[in-house]
Design a protein that fits this description.
Number of helices: 4
Order of helices and strands: EHHEEEHEH
Number of strands: 5
CATH topology: Aminopeptidase
Shape: globular
Radius of gyration: 16 Å
CATH architecture: 3-Layer(aba) Sandwich
CATH class: Alpha Beta
Distance between the termini: 52 Å
CATH superfamily: Gcn5-related N-acetyltransferase (GNAT)
Bound molecules: coenzyme A
Largest sheet: 5 strands, mixed
Strand content: 15-25%
Strand order of the largest sheet: 1-2-3-4-5
Helix content: 25-40%
Length: about 150
């Protein structure tokens, strides 16, 4: 099967995906960070496991998205879905894997009573702003503030 015919399945994340996500993160960022992913995914799995999605092709994790519905954070009382971490295999980008991951997560957010979904993006990262813009996200009047410690 050629790469263009690769079948990509979107499914719920399982704890056995930690190794695959660690490997994908290393491919994207060049750093092997098993402890980071063990800790991070364990945290998310305890909160809302059904919100977590991976893309799998030929038995390998080729994409993932982590997020959850929260209420009461940042003065937003209504249930709001948050997309917080994601990544798609650089060799398989532009094939709607990110879009499919997001659609699955947004369906779940809606089933949990969320009427909107938010994320925070560094606006210099045009690839991420472009991605969310294509998915119908718009800049929102909620500013992030930072102070160095
Ligand atoms: C952003 C990312 C998830 C996109 O994944 P992808 O599978 O290539 O995206 P898709 O093919 O599903 O694209 C969906 C839409 O986003 C748009 N898009 C995707 N990448 C884009 C880019 N680099 N620039 C502009 N638009 C882009 C596509 O054009 C598409 O729009 P369309 O359907 O209207 O044509 C992927 O590039 C990625 O993992 N980047 C690194 C993420 C990262 O840094 N994570 C760490 C912080 S959370």
């Amino acid at each position: 099967m050629t790469e263009s015919e690769t079948v990509v399945q979107i499914r719920q994340l399982e704890d056995t995906d930690i190794g695959g996500i660690t490997a994908l993160d290393e491919k994207i960022g060049g750093e092997y960070r098993p402890e980071v992913w063990e800790r991070r995914i364990t945290y998310y799995l305890r909160r809302d496991p059904e919100a977590l999605v991976v893309a799998e092709a030929d038995g390998k994790v080729v994409g993932f998205m982590l997020g959850e519905v929260r209420s009461g954070d940042f003065g937003l009382e209504e249930p709001t879905g948050w997309i917080e971490v994601m990544g798609v295999d650089p060799d398989l980008r532009g094939k709607a894997i990110g879009r499919r991951l997001a659609e699955r997560m947004l369906d779940h957010f809606q089933s949990q009573g969320a009427s909107s979904v938010r994320t925070l993006v560094d606006e210099t990262m045009t690839e991420i702003t472009g991605f969310f813009g294509s998915l119908g996200f718009e800049p929102a009047p909620l500013r992030s503030f930072v102070k160095n410690l």
